[in-house]
Amino acid sequence: MSAHPPRLDVGALLVQVENTPGIDRLRSLDGALGSADSELTEAILEQAADFCAGEIAPINHIADQQGCGLTDGRVVVPQPFKQAWDSYVALGWPTLDLPEEVGGQGLPLFLSSTVQQLLDGSCAAFAMFPVLLRSAARLIFAHGSEEIQAEWLPRLVSGEWAATICISESDAGSDVARARTTAVPNEDGSWSVSGEKMWISFGDHDLCPRIGHCVVARTEGGLSLFLVPNILDDGSPNAIFVRRIEKKLGLHGSPTCQLGLEGAKGWLIGDEGRGLSQLFVMIVNMRLCVGAQGLGLAASAVQTAHDYAAERRQGGPPGASPVTIDSHPDVQRMLLDMTAKLEVLRGLGLLLGVHADLALHDRDKEYRKQSSALVAFLLPIYKTLAGGAGFELASEAIQVLGGAGYTDEWPLEQALRDGRIATIFEGTTGMQALDLLHRRLWQDQSAGLDIFLKMAREDLATHDSTSADVALDCCELLEQAAARLAAMRTETSAAEAGATAFLELAGLAALGWIAARLTAVEGSGEAENSLRAAGKWYLRDLVARCAALDVQISANAACADLFRQITAGNGNTPA
Q1: 10, 211, 246, 415: least buried by Cβ within 10 Å?
Q2: Taking Cα atoms as reference points, which of 381, 391, 387, 379 lies closest to residue 294?
Q3: Strand 211-219 to strand 162-166: parallel, antiparallel, or no bridges (unpaired)?
Q4: How confident is the model at residue 302 (pLDDT cuts 50, 70, 90)?
Q5: Best CA proximity match to 77, nearest among 208, 165, 166, 174
Q6: Would you state the pLDDT for residue 574?
Q7: Quick one: CA dihedral 532, 109, 164, 199, positive or negative?
């Protein structure tokens, strides 16, 4: 073993794809979306695993050690990134799920999201870069003018040019409406954009000659979106300046920049004053990619822990040769916990990817509506739980390896550092929980929840098993908790205090459905046996865990009063 992640096995993933609700319906569609049959899916995932193991995993530790630098006002990324990016582009990976009309392959989102997991599990810092290009391409394809589309889409899709998403500011992170960056129109139809943007991933770099910054700025008509290139059409630099590169806990190879725009020249994307609503075209892709990052790091950690435990010898009967540590029940328990959590979250991600495409492309209008509601309900859950799995399972894997896992001779300590950000960026856990409460439960009147419960219950009714009964009990607890919260719209503070517990309860109910399906996977291969065992292990105490969260939702209503007492006891006066 070495400090870079192992080649990730895709056997269980391939079985999971075939077991995903909606996969047959997606494959019945015309065109590239319907072409991702089992044979093509296997070919792409195996090729991706080979590419990541050969080209991407070996640069992971180097990138972490080298980090990024600022030279003459420009960002320099880790030295191996350039060759890796050139190889990635040459093999056509950036085009996977982008529309065929702009040079993409038009393949399903579940497939590109799964490839993204393999990339993240090999080098998460590098893997962040193509996400930005795909997200910007979707934004421009949906809302850009013909001129912007003609100039930028072919080059973004091909990987020749790059892009960023510039939203956050020092006092306007999740609260985007407080953004102070401004844009004023110029006589030639362009705009002058001025302000300070923070937390910009790959805000500058030396991987591509031109970077298009998708910037949120305030105009007379409200918050609007602009494409602000770092290099103008005449080859001169635009008035965009790298103020600093953040020094971070992890993802050292990914430059997180503070950018200053000093009257930089930009062009309006879409309609003035509609910037925030237009950003939603990227939300599904971005949050799926956060989940993919968590699961990629988690898969690498789980595989490393299994491999180590099968080789490391310690303990056993006195006088006999030491046994491998995976013979010890407590190590077996940890490995089972890790594997089960990874597999049920993978199943949830595949479900989301399939239904995200069905929400846009299914032939039946009503089914599109149902898939859209399902995705809207599950997305904050998946982003939070799958995103957090990288950090959590890396931590558990370090426990399996013991002192060895705490050193940089193994990839786990880096995975732990790299994975910590996933429950923070693209909306913190608390923000996702509030979104679930305010928008999905109250504003949408539980439409997505109702679709989820209907779909899960109908499917589970076809499985006459104890596993299905456990999952159904969890759905019942979720429905009861949702009804209580739905009745608390006038008790906002008390409801919000229970929002994160509700998100976790909804997540466990969704994962219970996935786990029950895994216990019913057909086939006698090692991957099928592993998935059935993972599903059974995950379900063993799931009702008790859901019941505990159900209690928390109500018990957390005391949060505000107890918080005042604690802060007063510490000599502080709460706001």
Answers
A1: 246
A2: 387
A3: parallel
A4: very high
A5: 208
A6: 55
A7: negative
Task: Please choose, from the candidates 241, 264, 265, 182, the residue with its C-alpha nearest in 3D space to the C-alpha of residue 217.
Answer: 182
Containing 261, the helix (H) or strand (E) segment is strand 256-269
Q: Which amino acid belongs to residue 473? A: D
Per DSSP (E only), the strands in 153-231 are 162-166, 182-185, 191-201, 211-219, 222-229
Query: Under a CB-based contact definition with an 8 Å cutoff, are residues 448 and 374 in contact?
Result: yes
CB-CB contact of 227 with 153 (8 Å)? no
The CA distance from 562 to 559, in Å, is 5
The average pLDDT across 138-158 equals 95
Residue 464, pLDDT score: 81
70 sits in which H/E element: strand 69-71
- What tokens appear for 276 in the block? 């925030």
- Angstrom distance (rounded) from CA 400 to CA 403: 9
- Kindly state the DSSP code that residue 417 receives in the 8-state scheme: H
> In the structure encoding, which two tokens stand for residue 229, read together?
């290139």
Distances (CA, A) of 161 to 154, 171, 211, 282: 9, 30, 6, 19
69 CB neighbour count, 10 Å cutoff: 12
Please report the pLDDT score of residue 3 as a whole number.
Answer: 64
The more confident residue out of 184 and 427 is 184
Measured in residues, the chain has a length of: 575
Q: For residue 489, give every residue at least 6 positions away whose Cβ sits within 8 Å of its Cβ, in sequence order, or none.
A: 442, 495
How far apart CA 475 and CA 296 sit, in angstroms, is: 28
Q: What is the mean pLDDT of residues 216-234?
A: 96
- Active-site positions? 426
Kindly tell me the burial class for residue 236, based on how many C-beta atoms sit within 10 Å of its own C-beta (0-12, 13-18, 19 or more).
Answer: exposed
Strand partners, 244: 258
């609700």: which residue's tokens? 21
- Phi, psi at residue 67, to the nearest 5°? 65, -160
What is residue 565's predicted lDDT score, i.e. its pLDDT?
86
Q: How do residues 169-184 score in pLDDT, each as one tens digit?
A: 988 777 787 889 999 9
- Bridge partners (DSSP) of residue 264 are 193
Inter-residue contact 499 to 436 (CB < 8 Å): yes
335 pLDDT higher than 90: yes
Strand partners, 261: 195, 240
**Closest by Cα among 16, 19, 30, 128 to 357:** 30
Instruction: Measure the CA angle with vertex 214, ends 231 and 191; round to 5°.
Output: 70
Give residue 575's pLDDT.
57
